[in-house]
Structure formats: C-alpha cells, structure tokens
Design a protein that fits this description.
Shape: rod-shaped
Bound molecules: zinc ion
Structural class: mainly alpha
Oligomer: single chain
Strand content: under 5%
Number of domains: 2
Order of helices and strands: H
Distance between the termini: 64 Å
Length: 80
C-alpha cells in the first residue's frame, strides 16, 4: 500500500520518516510505522538477509561437493 503525503500528495518512499522528504510536512502518526513496527521490520529484514546468506553458503557447499564428486568420477573413469 502506497502512502501519500497529506500536504503535497507525493508518494512517501519510507514510512519511517517523521517528515515528508519533499515538502517537509509532518507525516501523521497514522501513516507512519510505529516504533514497534519498525523494530519488527528491522528484525524480519535481518532474518531474511541471514537466510539468504545461509542459503548461499549451502549452495556453495553443494557446488563444491558436486565438483569434488565429478572430479573423482572422472579420475575413476580415467582408470578404466
Ligand atoms: Zn509532502
């Protein structure tokens, strides 16, 4: 859901701001995230970032294993 500044009607790109970045008008509390919502948002962002990192690591491990497997397979076949 997009939130517009009640003063200049520009789309607010961040609901954390207390003031409109365009006209400087104060953003009503109802249109802003509360401190709890911001904290929850930060937490979920950090969590998803950590998850992404974890997945990347897992992927790298899988790739390394796959490479090792194919290496041993090719050396096995070279013995035949
Ligand atoms: Zn504004």
């Amino acid at each position: 859901m997009k939130v517009h500044c009640p003063s200049c009607d520009k789309v607010l790109y961040s609901r954390r701001l207390k003031q409109c970045a365009f006209c400087g008008a104060e953003i009503p509390e109802a249109l802003r995230f509360s401190a709890e919502e911001i904290a929850a948002l930060d937490r979920s962002l950090a969590e998803s970032a950590a998850r992404r990192k974890g997945n990347e690591h897992e992927f790298e491990e899988r790739e390394a294993k796959r490479r090792a497997d194919s290496d041993s397979a090719s050396s096995f076949f070279s013995l035949l």
